[in-house]
Backbone:
């Protein structure tokens, strides 16, 4: 189809993690939460069914903004809701980066950032992390062409974090906005929410997919200064969040007791997974997320991934050119992780 | 915020129709269906709640594609699902129209088309309908710069239709793709689905918001040839449709008995509304949609809109420069329409 823009024709398109629609797998490959969401979510969604589906939803999702503002300690008009945080990342990219302009991201990280640049017909500058997952000096160097910097924090696949004070310094040095993608931050010791008020170039995105166990609901949001929110809002679809997602996400963020309990369980299992894998000879990045990145100093890990899959345990094998490969294992329940560990024990000497 | 693209800074942004979140209004302003959706939708969504929200949804929404393909008589890989048909229109625009290129639309019609062009930094060529809502000759003239043509059919606000044979001829003359936006087509006597197989430049978009009473669910789709679908898919968010929307939309399109009954009721009320308004001296466009466009040869209609609103009946007042103004009244229940008509009777001589 020669009618499509060259930028689109030349793209491969983003390939999501394996989502087997049938068969019983232990899924430790897409960082889903192993526990079902708060029961308050079910109740809130049931309230909307029937007559509540007939009408258009609130275009701003104010019920969520008001509740989230209270929980997060920011004003409601600092929040914009999205159809998953992917929608938020899309909106930010379209609002800031034109054809031929530049978007920066660290690697290895979330490959969607590159896809978003490609769709815009923009240049994508990939800056490799240092070997210890810190950022090199050049990540903070601005240029005329550079219009947006993405920083996943915690990062994937490493789960590692850049401290907020370094991120503030980074934003102060850059001459363009910086999106801190905090998809996994509820499993971390720190976050960048406080920085948004200190520099209007800093935006923080969040998702309900991971720490609220709502990957199937598609709900994310961004926190930024209100003059930023009002520009971003021009780019979003008018009714980007449906009535069920708004109701469910509002109930979820309201149930902080559930969230704290869930977080604590996931972190305990993450600790167990990391220790056991270290005893098996793997090197583990210091994860602040609901997954851990494992490499091995001597053994090939690709066959381990394949053997696990044959035994119906899905983990993520990732191979980054000029960087190396590893296994990213999502934190499941203790039982799921033990099943995975038992298989791995038989696969390494 | 000087960081935003000039195209975004200069935009006003799309303003959705009034959606009062409180107070009891008779809402005849945003073309929502007056009847609640099929009860099968509620049942299907309840099946997904809890555990079903924890995981990412099927990125392709295959359950819907397979069922819809059967109902519509096209192969499943001719269908792409969207988060409302607005998402579909966004995807098509981003895939086809680059900065400085051109998008064509007729006026008066859906103002979102213009917004989408503005976000892309593209030129928007607005071609006025003839006074009888037929298309002028120039609508079919191609150019190097023109990359996409939008044609809402039935159109809004008129509710009128361009016959499929004229649309095929239009597509054959154009040198770029043509998107036929069939948001309201289930209330019409004809549609363009058969044309998709006859010219790969023809794409047809549909929504579940109107004829399936699911505006709150956000679900739409596009029918196009598979080589077109695979390019469009590169531009969509990976998980653009949530698990609840996929389940609900699948149940809705499966219940064609509900749809037929609903359609018949809406058309009967549309006929009643049109007749009564004609007796009150209004001119009515020949609507094939779930709303009717009324003008008046002598009376000002803006005060009628304002008086109705004061009496808690919302209709849409629209004023198009160089064209004129009118009232677009959505087809509600018979009771709602009679309440509206009774008020109007006292407002015109």
Residues:
């Amino acid at each position: 189809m020669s009618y499509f823009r060259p930028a689109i024709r030349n793209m491969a398109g983003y390939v999501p993690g394996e989502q087997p629609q049938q068969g019983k797998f232990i899924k430790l490959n897409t960082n889903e939460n192993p526990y079902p969401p708060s029961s308050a979510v079910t109740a809130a969604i049931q309230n909307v069914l029937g007559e509540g589906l007939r009408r258009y939803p609130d275009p701003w999702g104010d019920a969520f903004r008001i509740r989230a503002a209270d929980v997060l300690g920011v004003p409601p008009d600092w929040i914009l809701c999205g159809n998953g945080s992917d929608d938020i990342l899309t909106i930010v990219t379209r609002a800031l980066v034109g054809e031929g302009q530049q978007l920066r991201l660290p690697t290895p990280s979330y490959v969607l950032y590159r896809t978003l640049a490609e769709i815009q017909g923009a240049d994508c500058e990939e800056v490799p992390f240092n070997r210890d997952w810190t950022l090199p000096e050049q990540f903070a160097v601005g240029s005329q062409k550079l219009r947006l910097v993405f920083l996943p924090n915690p990062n994937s696949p490493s789960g590692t974090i850049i401290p907020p004070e370094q991120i503030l310094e980074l934003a102060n040095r850059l001459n363009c906005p910086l999106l801190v993608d905090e998809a996994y931050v509820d499993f971390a010791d720190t976050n960048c929410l406080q920085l948004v008020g200190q520099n209007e170039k800093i935006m923080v995105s969040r998702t309900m997919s991971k720490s609220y166990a709502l990957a199937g609901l598609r709900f994310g949001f961004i926190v930024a200064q209100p003059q930023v929110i009002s520009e971003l809002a021009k780019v979003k679809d008018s009714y980007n969040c449906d009535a069920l997602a708004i109701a469910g996400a509002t109930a979820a963020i309201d149930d902080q007791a559930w969230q704290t309990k869930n977080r604590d369980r996931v972190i305990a299992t993450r600790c167990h997974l990391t220790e056991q894998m270290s005893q098996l000879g793997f090197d583990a990045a210091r994860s602040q997320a609901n997954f851990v990145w494992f490499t091995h100093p001597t053994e090939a890990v690709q066959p381990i991934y394949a053997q696990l899959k044959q035994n119906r345990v899905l983990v993520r094998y990732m191979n980054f050119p000029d960087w190396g490969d590893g296994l990213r294992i999502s934190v499941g329940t203790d039982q799921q992780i033990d099943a995975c560990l038992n298989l791995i024990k038989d696969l390494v000497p």
About this structure: The two ends of chain B are 52 Å apart (CA to CA).
